[in-house]
Write a structure and sequence with these properties.
The protein has about 160 residues and is mainly α. It contains five helices and four strands, in the order ααααβαβββ. A two-stranded antiparallel ribbon has the order 1-2. It has a two-stranded antiparallel sheet with strand order 3-4.
C-alpha cells in the first residue's frame, strides 16, 4: 500500500488520529513534566524522521528530543510496523550509549535536509544538540545506518533501554 501524495506534507496523517494520540500519550507518560502540546510536537517530529529515513536510507540521526518520539513510535509495534510498511521500508533502530563528545553537528544538518527533501518542515526547536532543547527521558543516541537491509552498525548489548 502506497501513501497518497496529499498526505506527505502532514506527518500526522502518516498514522491514524487514534494512533497518533496513543503515541503522543506514551511520549507524555515517559515525560510527566511535558505539556500535551509538546508531546504531540515530539511525536510529529518522530514521524517526519521515520518517513525521511525510509525514503533516504543511510546515515540519518534524530536529535535527542526527536529520538523520544521515535522511541514512542517503536513501542507501539503494530503502529510502527504498519507505518514502515506503508513507507516502503522498515526503519531499524540502532542504539548507542550517549556520548556528547561523539556529537557531529553536520549529522543533524544532513538529517534536516533529508526531512525537507521528503516534503516536511522540521520544528527547529526540537532539533537541537545533545545537551540542549526541552528535557526528555530518552537517554541514548541512535543512528539509521541500514540501507537495503544491510546494517553497518550493530546494536550494543549494554544499551540501557
Amino acid at each position: 500500500m502506497t501513501l497518497d501524495t496529499t498526505q506527505l506534507l502532514d506527518a500526522r496523517k502518516l498514522i491514524t488520529a487514534e494512533e497518533f494520540a496513543g503515541v503522543a500519550a506514551t511520549v507524555g507518560s515517559n515525560n510527566p513534566d511535558m505539556s500535551q502540546a509538546d508531546a504531540e510536537r515530539v511525536t510529529e517530529e518522530g514521524l517526519k524522521f521515520v518517513a525521511a529515513a525510509a525514503r533516504f536510507p543511510g546515515n540519518m540521526r534524530p536529535s535527542r528530543v526527536v529520538d523520544e518520539g521515535w522511541h514512542s513510535l517503536i513501542l507501539h509495534t503494530l503502529v510502527y510496523a504498519r507505518l514502515c510498511e506503508r513507507l516502503g521500508r522498515f526503519v531499524h533502530h540502532l542504539p548507542e550509549l550517549p556520548d556528547p563528545t561523539r556529537y557531529t553537528p553536520g549529522a543533524l544538518d544532513h538529517t534536516l535536509s533529508q526531512i525537507r527533501t521528503a516534503g516536511y518542515e522540521p520544528d527547529m526547536e526540537l532539533w537541537t544538540g545533545p545537551l540542549e532543547g526541552i528535557p526528555v527521558a530518552a537517554n541514548c543516541q541512535h543512528d539509521n545506518q541500514c540501507a537495503d537491509g544491510n546494517c553497518q552498525a550493530t546494536c550494543r548489548d549494554d544499551h540501557p533501554n
